[in-house]
Amino acid sequence: MKDELIGMGKPSNTAYDDALKTIVHEIPRFCIPLINEMFGEDNDLKTKIVLLNNDYYKEHPEKRFSRRETDLGVAINDKVYHIECESTANSDIFLRMFEYDMSMAKADSEYRGGRLLVRLPKSGVLFLRSTGNTPDSVQVEMIRDGEQIGGYIMPVIKMQDYDIDDIFDKHLYILLPFYVFTLEKTFRIMNTDEALREELFERYRDILGRIESLTQSGEISGYDENCLNSSMLYVVRKIADKHESLWKGVEDIMRGKIIDFPAKRERDAGRREGREEGRVEGRVVGREEGKITLLVEQYQNGDMTLDIVAKYLKMPVDEALEFINNYSKTKVIS
């Protein structure tokens, strides 16, 4: 999934799930503003975030099991959070949420001298599409023998409630791939109206400009920028699939941004330096140095796991860790 997204492969039927999971795994810190927004928390944006196992196995009759995968499960400051990204609201999703919550609670349960402690995660739903009937939250009530013995609230975030300014003002960059859902109802008109199409394209030029400004200011890295841009285009291509003039226009705007991001510019600068010095060594260093520095920086900032770094470096995990440690001793990572 992740390689297809970054490589701009043909979007799958679960394009929005793929986009969300890519950002969660590649840029985990982007989860923090979403968690703060959904649960009314005030976690610092530099707080350490731990990705949890998102596999869940449901048992069926005749001892059959089916594998399900949660969209976002993380731990921050000893609190566990669970968020699902859904296209539309229905009763099934809230039942599945409860099942996922119980599975996560089971993994964090503890038995102490006659007491079984079950810690439920804070859980909520992100709806990409919504109507007047979509709830703002859902009350989960647990009843035994006709009496309520407990319960909790699942908050809801509706993509329709967020415009471009909201997303950037609240650092909700993880929502950028889904901005296209707020425009979906006007696709048919846009497809035949040149002025409306240009308005759509201008919105994406605005988004790209704001993302580039974040990179230039150092708030996000070149890798983050590329990941966001790739994810946005991936979702647009899927959601606007039947409106070719729309997604192709957005693709034309974004292609250059996806190809020409800061890590690439570093490598290109190195290539030019190598040519100017007339040395093969200069070209090799110029091509690879920016990439390696970026990978090490992402790992040290907690934005990329060691497994992912090892994959990019094409090394076993233990060799990748040794390489990073040795590299850090000889390079100053900003």
* Distinct helical segment count: 13
Low-confidence stretches: 1-8, 259-265, 274-287
**Overall 3D geometry?**
globular
What is the beta-strand fraction? Answer: 15-25%
Strand order of the largest sheet: 1-4-5-8-10-9
The total beta strand count reads 10
Q: Look at the structure and give the mean pLDDT.
A: 80
Helix content: 40-55%
**What is the H-and-E element order?**
HHHEEEEEHEEEEEHHHHHHHHH
Find the structural class using helix and strand composition.
Answer: alpha+beta
The span between the termini is 30 Å
Report on the biggest sheet: 6 strands, mixed
What is the rounded Rg?
Answer: 22 Å
List the helices and strands and how they pair.
Layout: H1 2-6, H2 15-26, H3 31-39, E1 49-51, E2 55-60, E3 64-69, E4 72-76, E5 79-86, H4 91-107, E6 110-112, E7 115-117, E8 122-127, E9 137-144, E10 147-158, H5 164-169, H6 187-190, H7 194-217, H8 222-239, H9 244-259, H10 262-277, H11 280-300, H12 306-313, H13 317-330
Parallel strand pairs: 5-8, 8-10
Antiparallel strand pairs: 1-4, 2-3, 4-5, 6-7, 9-10
